[in-house]
Structures are given as structure tokens and as C-alpha cells.
Amino acid sequence: MKIIVHGGAWAIPDNAVEDHLKGVTQAVKKGLKEKNALDAVEKAINTMENDPTFDAGYGSFLNANGEIELDAIIAENSNFGAVAGVSKVRNPISLAKKILRDNEVNFIICRGAEDYAEKNGVPLCDPKELIMERELKRWRRIKKENKKPEDFFHSTVGAVALDENGNIAAGTSTGGTPNKIPGRVGDSPLFGAGCYANSSVGISATGYGECIMRVLLSRTVAELYKKMELEQACKEALTVLKNIGGYGGVISIDVKGNFGYSFNTPRMAYAFNEGNKINSFI
Q1: Which residues pair with 271 in a beta bridge?
Q2: What residue numbers bound the domain in which 186 lies?
Q3: How much is the pLDDT for 154?
Q4: I want to staple 169 with a disulfide (CB 3.0 to 4.6 A). Which of 31, 76, 227, 265 is the partner?
Q5: 169 near 75, Cβ under 8 Å?
Q6: Which residues are bridge partners to 80 per DSSP?
Q7: How many domains does the chain have?
Q8: How far apart are CA 133 and CA 183, in angstroms?
Q9: Chunked in runs of 10, what are the mean pLDDT values of the chain (282 residues)?
Q10: Residue 70 in contact with residue 135, Cβ under 8 Å?
Q11: What is the per-residue pLDDT across 121-146, written as a single tens digit (0 to 9) for each?
């Protein structure tokens, strides 16, 4: 099994570096315990959704109404499952995986997604259980200072895995931007933007969602990979993003087991394995 994860590309402050490094390392450890790529991606992202260090699941940023709204996607073999705007699902990536596995629809949002979770055995929770006091304080400060969502950093978590059978899976999960407009959906749950996977390569993206959507960043990596090495494809895709004023990062794996990653933000938390050894970076 090969797996690479990210914990967001932004100006991670010095006092948060250690927690980010620990978080992405633990995510890789959890993913490596699984036998197939799809389960590895789910478990790695579950780990980060449950870690308040990251903007996904528990401890996510709050929208302009002080509420949690979560988005996620998981993909393999040019197919995907995705959810957006859920508030009662502790692990949105697991709901996205259920949608992918059922293969009836690809994308469910808000109340419909929560109803689907309840009917299909995906655990629900009280939205208040996902809100940290830290984020309530941040939300109150933002409201007091009257700042807009674009004034803040943008974060996400993601994972890409390749198993021994040559299967590639990728996933992305997020709580979105602080003080976002209620109902706003960024790039994260959009196939080809925040995540993409086919039989040759898998990608997860993070960063300024509005720009990532415009260039279909993950799909751009996949298209560039057809004519260059994966690492170069990631760098070229970030140039495309930068050319429209966007910022962020990508992680990827190809079917040959090569890792690719690039970012144009001050920092990106990421980790990957080399056999049983886990390398983590910011």
C-alpha cells in the first residue's frame, strides 16, 4: 500500500506545526492498516476529520450563522460519491464512500444527504457535538471585526492511495472557509476540482476553492500527467492556478507508485509512506 495525505495548504503558524505533523503522520498510519485503496483513503481522512487540528469534521470552521456545514468526496476508477452542506454527520467521507459504493447517485446535499445517512447506517450526531469552543471564539471575533470569508485562510484534508492490486482512490473533506455564506460549496466535493481518480492517477487538492473550481485543478493534474512526469504535472497545474490568482496545493499517486505534490502557499502539511517508514513535512 502507498498513501499520501495532506492537512491543508495555507500559512500554518509556527505554534500549529507540531500538531499538523502529528496529524498527517497518524492519518497515514491508519490508512496503511487497510487492504484496499478506497478503505485506506476513508480511514486516513476519518483520522483527520476526528482531529480538531484540521478543518474537517470535528472542529471545522463555522459559517456566517455560526453553524457547521461539511463537504466531502471520495473517488476511484473515474467514479465518485460526494456530499455537501451536512451538519449531522461526524465523518462525511464515510457517507461519500457509501454513496459511491451504492452507485445509485453521485452527489447528495444537505438534509437529503443526512436522510440518506440515517437510512443507510452512517452514524449521525448532534451538530453541536462538532463545534469547538475555539471555533465559536473565532466566529465571534470575525463577526466583531466584520471580515469577509476571503480574508481568511482556506483549509482541507485529503488522501490518495494505491493498493497492491493497482487500484487508486482519492478523497477530500472540509468544513469550508470561516464565516462562509451559508450554503456555499467550494471545490472540495466537486469531481475534477477538489478530487479526481481514474485507473492511472489520483489527486486531492486544497486551497482557495473558487479558483480551484475554475481551473478544475485535480483534473488538470491528470491531463498534464498524460504528457509529463507526475511531479512536474503537479507543479504545472499549480502554475495554472496561480495564473488566475489562485493558491493551494495538490497531492497525487500514479499507478506506478510515484508520488506527486506541489503547493504555492507558505506551507502545506503532508505525509506519505516509503514501505513502513512515514515521512511528514510542512
Answers
A1: 5, 280
A2: 2-281
A3: 60
A4: 76
A5: yes
A6: 75
A7: 1
A8: 22
A9: 98 96 99 98 99 97 97 99 98 99 98 98 97 95 76 79 99 96 97 99 97 98 99 99 97 99 97 97 96
A10: no
A11: 999 999 999 999 999 999 999 988 87
Output the nine-digit C-alpha cell for 138.
473565532
Q: What is the pLDDT of residue 160?
A: 99
Question: Domain of 131: which CATH number?
Answer: 3.60.20.30
168-174 vs 277-281, strand pairing mode: unpaired
| pLDDT of amino acid 155 | 76
DSSP SS3 for 207: strand
Using alpha carbons, select from 2, 45, 8, 1 the residue that is nearest to residue 27: 45
Contacts of 146 (CB under 8 A, 6+ apart): none
Q: Which three cell numbers stand for residue 282?
A: 510542512
CA-CA-CA-CA torsion sign (263, 55, 216, 167): positive
Amino acid at 122: V
Q: Enumerate the active-site residues.
A: 156
Cα-based distances in Å from 176 to 14, 35, 104, 206: 22, 30, 26, 11
